[in-house]
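Technical note accompanying the year-one report. For the benefit of new consortium partners, we illustrate the data format agreed upon in the data management plan: each record pairs a sequence with a structure-token string. No post-processing was applied to the example shown here.
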Amino acid sequence: MMLLDNDQLRTFLAVAETGSFTKAAEDVHRTQSAVSMQIKKLEERIGKPLFSRTGRDVRLTSEGRTLVSYAQKMMALNEAAVCAISSEEVSGSVRLGLPDDYADRLLPRVLAAFSRTHPAVEVFVECHSSNYIATLVRNGEIDLGIVTYADTGGTIVRREQLHWVASESMSAAMQDPIPLALGGEHCNWRHAATSGLNRARRNWRITYTSSSAAAINGAVAAGLAISVLPESAIRSDVRVLTQADGFPALPVCEIAMIRAKHATQTVHNALAEHIERRLNNLMPAEQVA
């Protein structure tokens, strides 16, 4: 009987969920070459291709789509078994805040895994700017926050490269001055974008200001402006710009967790530890078992 390897299935799901071998490598804390090797071994075991690759696009084949549902059930059952044996069931509720920049890509994967292992816990989510989330945490109005470290401080749990993004047509990227869609005046990414363009002696103007990642992504995808986003917030309908396109290098974005003083219960610890474990990409891949 052919047995499937759980580690390979976990990597397979990461590629399927992110649509990228590079992003999947961050999720599973391995190098991109190691991820490619695991997928190759799984495809050899299955005897069918699981992904079709066109340029930088990675899409599931029909066999891959079939395997996804089975892999999810196998991973959920494995996590539930470990949780049931290793600890008592945790119950209660947690209030979590984070910017919608992170919510779109990070939140579904993180909370889906948490709900499988902690079905008796309710998680209430609020999306605001990092600074506002920090205020809510300080005031005790929410329990935990996932925020941009440069804006709020906290415990760093993840680092991601910031990227320039434009529509596939790159129409906005070729304008002079360059139209920008960015956060408010106190946004750290806005400062990184404008100061970088100033150093590169590129003319720019702010055409869209919003704390909503959905609004900024919409302006970018429509070709009305370019913006700056971390790796996890980049959607498939935009194009990443590099120095070869005439745009300066950007700094790394540090994602942090902050916790309210009252958030010391088992249920708070369970979600905080789960988020740190799922988001963490700070450990070198060679040190991860």
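Partners are asked to follow this layout when depositing records. Residues 283-289 have pLDDT under 50 and may be disordered.
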